[in-house]
């Protein structure tokens, strides 16, 4: 018998973004197999120099979800625990960042930047063409700063959860929240250690030079039923920032879990409306919410 998890997901354009007529920067992607569930959530930065970050967050989610599914089937299902942890904390993170960078450069080749955008980034057309076409591989180190300027156009956070039968893997780059709920204990747990650098609007990013090192990783082994959470919630920071007290935000997971077990169709019918209202009354930011639960 495979893993017994159900899921529901929604993203909404923030109230302030609606007023300014700016696109939603959030994205999510889910892949489910018989023996795994992968959830990826990302929040594009959306500021002046990150003017394609909605695409950046989409690419981050797509790559992380696809890679998670591939690793779940071909690597994590076959290796022992010590090897799994090493691969998840090294090669998997490196592959996500490398494939994201490749996808960004491909997107720039398909939809080139304008002269005005290059001026904004302070990159010459000549250097831009070299980077996009990879005409001179030996100039990549020389143009390293320009390479990262191009990546920054697509800057995004990234949260990834991979659920398998005997363990759950978590990765986090930047802000956002992953919460676990244990019904019997009525306990909420954040499995990812905090990052003191994530204050105000500052965040680490998949576009940075240190993206692989900045990506936090945790593995939770499910040795018995007491170790296995009953529900998982993943959100972009627009959700938690809509609450004055973080404890009130945590309680949302408990409330959702109860409603989903009682009538998940009701939640599906109203979740977009509820998130719209939360953004309007709270942060004004885009909100993405993914919930996974066991009956």
Helix content: 40-55%
Instruction: Indicate the radius of gyration in whole angstroms.
Output: 20 Å
Strand elements, count: 10
**Major pleated sheet:** 5 strands, antiparallel
Mean pLDDT: 92
Could you describe the 3D structure shown?
The structure is a single chain. With 295 residues, the protein is α+β, with helices and mostly antiparallel strands. The chain has helices spanning 15-20, 53-76, 81-89, 91-110, 115-121, 125-133, 144-152, 211-214, 237-240, 246-281; strands at 6-12, 26-32, 36-43, 158-164, 167-173, 177-182, 187-189, 216-221, 231-235, 287-293. The chain has a five-stranded antiparallel beta sheet. A five-stranded antiparallel beta sheet has the order 2-3-4-5-8. Helix 2 runs antiparallel to helix 4. The longest helix has 36 residues, at 246-281.
Helices and strands in order:
Elements (H helix, E strand, L loop, with lengths): L5 E7 L2 H6 L5 E7 L3 E8 L9 H24 L4 H9 L1 H20 L4 H7 L3 H9 L10 H9 L5 E7 L2 E7 L3 E6 L4 E3 L21 H4 L1 E6 L9 E5 L1 H4 L5 H36 L5 E7 L2
Antiparallel strand pairs: 1-10, 2-3, 3-4, 4-5, 5-8, 6-7, 6-9, 9-10
Helix pairs in contact: 2-4
State the gist of this model.
By secondary structure, this protein is an alpha+beta fold. It contains ten helices and ten strands.
